[in-house]
Amino acid sequence: MAKQDRAIRTRGAILTAAAKVFEEHGYQAATISEILSTAGVTKGALYFHFNSKEELAFGVLDAQHIQFAIPSRPCKLQELVDAAMLHAYRLQTDPMVRASVRLAMDQTATGLDRTGPFLRWSGITRELLAQAQAQGELLPQVVPDNSSDVFVGSFAGIQSMSQVLSGYQDLTGRVSELMRHLLPALAQPSVIASLRLSASRGAEVFEEVQDLMEEHRTPVSID
Predict the structure, then answer these.
(1) Number of helices (H) and strands (E), helices first, in the chain?
(2) CA distances from 73 to 9, 76, 83, 160, 175 (A)
(3) Residue 202 φ/ψ region, left for φ over 0, alpha for ψ in the -120 to 50 degree band, beta for the rest
(4) Domains 2-52 and 63-216 are alike in CATH topology
(5) Which pLDDT value is given to residue 192?
(6) Chain-centre distance of CA 217, in angstroms?
């Protein structure tokens, strides 16, 4: 068991180091040697867990979807808002999530398949919009397949803008404002009036999820 725990810690240290290097330099300029130096592990230890720089990048890309699940809400649009606001809060506070987003948005990452995060977010959004539609939360003309891509694309654009202008410091406020602009095209007015859309919502959901994880003492995943 101790050996297994040590392997888990080593893998985590390597991913954390890779995230730091990818965030600072981007995928193309990052090198295995710098990741090794940052992690403080041997080449053998790294290649025991990851076969290549690309595999390391996939591990970092997956980081934004691991460990945190949005608690189920009676209102599925609130659940969607909470997912977006929690992600914004984690971008501000979690270096691994920042590195994951940096990789996903890195247009110079030649040869790296960056579709995973976009497809996962589109899938989550599509499912929640379909559930909201079934509950009568959406306007009659809304098509979840179309609206999910608009939602995710707008969300990605706001993240990029915030990164450039403030290093994500204003992101939760920008995402809150994005929700106020997008939701009238999707939701029944009576539903919008009941939603919690403040910039502090992400921090509130984060604390709620942390309490649930502490209560159950097991990792939670949104996959």
Answers:
(1) 11, 0
(2) 34, 6, 11, 29, 20
(3) alpha
(4) no
(5) 97
(6) 22
Could you tell me the pTM of the whole model?
Answer: 0.85
63-216: CATH number: 1.10.357.10
Over residues 31-60, the pLDDT tens digits come to: 999 999 999 999 999 999 999 999 999 988
The CA distance from 203 to 211, in Å, is 12
C-beta separation of 38 from 20 below 8 A = yes
Buried b or exposed e, range 124-150, using 16+ CB within 10 angstroms: bbbebbebbbeeebbeeeeebeebbee
Beta bridge partners of 187: 138
For 83-97, how does the pLDDT look when each residue is reduced to its tens digit (9 = 90+)?
999 999 999 998 889
Mapping DSSP to helix (H, G, I), strand (E, B) and coil, where does residue 187 land? strand
Residue 103 near residue 61 (C-beta atoms within 8 A): yes
CATH number, domain 2-52, options 3.90.170.10, 3.30.590.20, 1.10.10.60, 3.40.1160.10: 1.10.10.60
Domain ranges of the chain: 2-52, 63-216
Nearest alpha-carbon partner for 145 in 126, 120, 164: 126
